[in-house]
């Protein structure tokens, strides 16, 4: 029987991490692959994922995240950064990747490529930014679910100043924007939040069947 729901009941937004416990390379590789395999619109994956281990950098980022301790105490800090612009080269890169991966001529995918290019040209810069930010949340969801499977704690966080993160990490120069972050590691035994009952809406209040 699937342990998915059991894992979802186990996980919570960890408030205090045990700074002495680090995620193994094998487990980190599993989490990275879970992010890589995430669904995304058109399959384009128009974002980068920055894994921050450097303690000095994380100390600077903590100041840009309202001083939240998870930023420096967790084993790793994950920053999901969306592309701030999209051009034909991004589409061509995807087509070339698909061609190589599937062993088919790139020319056979040209129609799909033209369709994507045409669709994106109708979006404003703001619409592109919002659209790409949404894609990072899909990847974040994969991370949270995969971490729960490994019994690794993860805290999704929107409580930070993107502009400051962008400056500290040099994301502006790469046409990237920090859209959402997550801290991953292992809960501290003193984190009282782990003992709180999970609060969710009832089925009756959440679902509408038509």
UniProtKB/TrEMBL annotation:
Residues 10-186 form the Nitroreductase domain. Belongs to the nitroreductase family. Keywords: Flavoprotein, FMN, NADP, Oxidoreductase. Gene3D superfamilies: NADH Oxidase. SUPFAM superfamilies: FMN-dependent nitroreductase-like (SSF55469). This is NAD(P)H-dependent oxidoreductase. The keyword 4Fe-4S does not apply. Signal peptide: none annotated. It comes from the Bacteria. Its cofactor is FMN. GO terms for molecular function: oxidoreductase activity. Coiled coil: none annotated. It comes from Flavobacterium psychrotolerans.
